[in-house]
Specification:
By secondary structure, this protein is an all-alpha fold. It contains 10 helices and no strands.
């Protein structure tokens, strides 16, 4: 929340500066403009540093929750279930940098059952979840039209393209053709 506020302030400063470019002949305006730009850049750098620190802290909490005999599932839940997908991506990045393993791999090896599946799904990119769901909806006999409609109708064009890319890499075929073959029958 605090980082979001800082980023919004920095963005507002940058936008204001772009709208109010100083007159090249007005030295005082140029000095004021340069100070405002420096202030905006400092806010952006501060926000990036804070995000990096928060991600590193989250990665370390996950590491210590998994370290030793047994797993502190409550600590994992506290870290992972209170983050947005973007924050989880940052924690995963920090975890990879610190421990040379993805957060998803670590959690999958530590937690089983329904909780394990839930946490792994939480750490799975949305495009991969959608690609797998579409594959499962079109695989075998019959088609899960309701699932196809739910995914295709509720995702942005970019999300659909991202899922199609994952689908092609993972299943070595076209997601569009799979859907078209199943619904055109």
């Amino acid at each position: 929340p605090a980082t979001t506020v800082m980023l919004k302030k920095a963005a507002a400063l940058v936008k204001a500066q772009l709208r109010g470019m100083p007159d090249p002949g007005d030295e005082q305006s140029i000095l004021t403009y340069n100070k405002e730009v420096e202030r905006a850049l400092a806010l952006i750098q501060e926000e990036q540093l804070l995000l990096k620190q928060l991600a590193t802290s989250g990665a370390r909490k996950v590491y210590y929750a998994c370290k030793g005999f047994g797993t502190d599932e409550k600590a994992l839940i506290k870290v992972l279930c209170h983050c947005s997908k973007d924050e989880l991506d940052l924690i995963d990045w920090a975890y990879r940098m610190l421990y040379k393993r993805s957060l998803r791999e670590q959690v999958a090896s530590e937690v089983g059952g329904h909780l394990g599946r839930f946490l792994v799904m939480l750490l799975t990119p949305t495009a991969e979840i959608d690609a797998d769901a579409i594959y499962n909806a079109t695989a075998g006999l019959g088609t899960d039209e309701q699932l196809l409609v739910e995914i295709i109708a509720t995702r942005s064009v970019t999300s659909i393209f991202n899922a199609a890319d994952v689908y092609k890499r993972k299943y070595k075929s076209s997601m569009v053709k799979a859907v078209d073959n199943d619904i055109s029958g």
